[in-house]
Specification:
Elements: H1 3-16, E1 17-19, E2 31-35, H2 41-49, E3 54-59, H3 62-75, E4 80-84, H4 87-92, E5 99-105, H5 123-132, E6 133-143, H6 146-158, E7 162-164, H7 176-183, E8 189-195
Parallel strand pairs: 1-4, 2-3, 2-5, 3-4, 5-6
Antiparallel strand pairs: 6-8, 7-8
Helix pairs in contact: 1-3, 2-3
């Protein structure tokens, strides 16, 4: 982690940071949960384009957390809270029927069959995500792993409280990870499902 990001973490955590398990700060706008935001570039772009909603971005990777804090300051964003910890733990403690959207862009596909139980998008986790969504709330996913894309689609389709939907504003920015996937010839699949 570079000096600039270490500095951002030290200076900005108390204003924009949140440890999973602590009480959430009060808010007055619809809430979007970003799971696993990587280095935070896409999250910062989406939050900047969507000032009417708050973004709660959760990650376990410290350099990514520091980078997003730096971007929040650099862009003057007032609608981003950066959470450190396990997204599923955060969800278990969150009120039902509250989230406007959940985003998980390029979650680890855990490609080996024996590791599939570690995937974010599996039936028990999708049920939990759906519990936390408000009516008409959206789950937005993206992956460059073809088999995981089909597994995601099947899992979301099997959740009776969800239906396939169309992308919402703001559009998902192209990430560096996605650009590398496309350059390597891997197709990217975007999925949107809406709570009935």
């Amino acid at each position: 982690m570079g000096v600039q990001n270490r500095d951002a973490l030290a200076r900005l955590w108390h204003r924009h940071g949140h440890l999973v398990g602590e009480p959430m700060p009060a808010r007055g706008r619809p809430l979007v949960l970003e799971i696993g935001f990587g280095m935070g570039d896409a999250t910062a772009q989406m939050a900047a384009a969507d000032p009417g909603r708050d973004y709660l971005a959760v990650e376990i990777h410290t350099p990514g957390i520091a980078r997003l804090l730096a971007l929040v300051e650099e862009r003057g964003l007032t609608n981003v809270t950066v959470a450190r910890g396990d997204a599923l733990e955060l969800l278990r403690g969150h009120p039902d029927d509250d989230l406007a959207a959940v985003h998980a862009f390029f979650p680890d596909p855990w490609p080996k069959a024996r590791h599939h139980k570690r995937r974010l998008i599996q039936p028990t986790h999708v049920a939990l995500l759906t519990d936390k969504l408000q009516q008409n709330g959206k789950i937005r996913l993206a992956t460059d792993h073809a088999e995981y894309a089909e597994a995601m689609r099947a899992t979301l389709t099997a959740e009776k409280r969800l239906k396939a939907g169309e992308a919402e504003h703001p559009p998902r920015p192209t990430t560096k990870f996605e650009q590398r996937a496309r350059e390597a010839g891997r197709a990217v699949t975007d999925l949107v499902f809406v709570k009935r």
